Amino acid sequence: MNDKSLYVITKRKGDKIMTKKRNIWIYSTLIILVIFSGLSLRAFPQYLPRGFGNYAPDTLWALMIFLLIGVGFKNASTKSIGKAALSFCYFIEITQLYHAPWIDAIRETTIGGLILGFGFLWSDLVCYTAGIGIGVLMESLYLNPLE
Prior knowledge:
This protein is mainly α and 147 residues long. Helices cover 63% and strands 12% of the residues.
């Protein structure tokens, strides 16, 4: 395994052995770019078309979760990563229906608000689905797909 790859997966497809790699440097760079873009969109929504500033940060958040899970679970398929990321994002959104003093206190911190959010929105579920769909498509087409 070369130093740049996070891991190598070898699969048999007929008589051929297929090796696919996730490159930690590419994924790390993408994660940083997605975080920077999402925070920028949250900070300056007035410079964006209406709606874009409302929905794009949530879409990017889901894409970041997809990329992080992809880095963390090196032997998982793209499909499995997509399912796990979607489940995680939906779970976080559903927990926004729960309001107890202790969790609301966490939500009031900057990092807690960014991770846990504040209130349940159906539109966020659509954004998460789109963000993870972008991640699955991106990995399948460009980043050495894992079936």
